[in-house]
Amino acid sequence: MLSLIKFPRVFSINQVPKVFHEDSIISGYRHPRSSATDCILSLFQMTNETLNIWTHFLPTWYFLWKLVTVVLMQQGWQDTFTWPLLVFLFSCCIYPLASSCAHTFSTMSVRARHICFFFDYGALSLYSLGSAIVYSFYIFPDKWLNSTFHQWYIPIAMANTIVCTILACYSRLGLPFLQYNHDVVKRLPESPKFSKFFRILAFAYPYLFDNIPLFYRVFLCTGEGCTDNDTNMLHYKHIALAFITGFLFAMRFPERLAPGSFDYIGHSHQLFHVCAIIGTHFQMLAVEQDLVMRRSWLTVNSIPVSFANSVGPALLCVVLNLIIILLFSLPLLSAPACQESKREKDKKKQATKHCSCY
Ligand SMILES: [Zn+2]
Predict the structure, then answer these.
(1) Binding residues for Zn(2+), per the UniProt record (predicted)?
(2) Is 354 annotated as a binding residue?
(3) Most exposed residue of 97, 107, 290, 308, measured as fewest CB within 10 angstroms of its CB?
(4) What is the pTM of this model?
């Protein structure tokens, strides 16, 4: 059956515009003006994005299954104490889904690429908020319950989500309306390192903030009230995986050692996806176990769960993130378009043309 389908051609790095280049990835690029059908077909052919897509598309269903299980089987919606878990599981579905969609459709045009990754960054920011909400109710060490830091933890995490979505979107093209290039094809700075620094900061900072109570609990706390229970082993695992994930993202390892050798299988972005998902899996197991083990203690001694401190902040940040993405996307959507005929002609010629309207 598959042999009857004509898969789109793939290109080398020199045949696609610079904005599509990935460091040390030499081949396997899709056409920079792929149709939506070609993008979907590319899921079933080997390109340098195929495993990026599948490594987040399949886990989306795993986390969705977990979410549905809690909602339907355990009737989580009626039990306010499980609302933070529902928010967290929702964020665990959204970030791999947004990522797999971004990787699938990012080669439709330069504009589509930027907008796709704006959604990817927004979803990652929501995941950091989902982690903060679930941590606030299940993993805070006994010592810190009801402290001033605990009371401000979710509001600060909400502010982080907004700031970090803005920062990550800013890292692509600068500020909308003020700094975007007229031809919208270049990344923000001439130096990609500058752009990458902002993006790493946008993801690392909320992660480090969210984990302050957990790092304190498992690495620093001594004496009474440290919540030193069996779940700590699971927490060690997801913390270790998070650091490996960050290392892979930042260092572009292993492809930087042998450019071109890992174009299709084994490059850092695929490993980054896999480590992030395994880390999220262990994080989910850890928070579920803390929920079960500490529930009776937390119900009596901690801040009670309400709509206003769990589902409400998540919904508000979904709306605010969508507004931010819209603001960053509007100038791209309203930028002058190439004449359709010229674009079609260029497309037929070949992908090497650096048309400003890609
Ligand atoms: Zn990705």
Answers:
(1) 103, 269, 273
(2) no
(3) 308
(4) 0.88
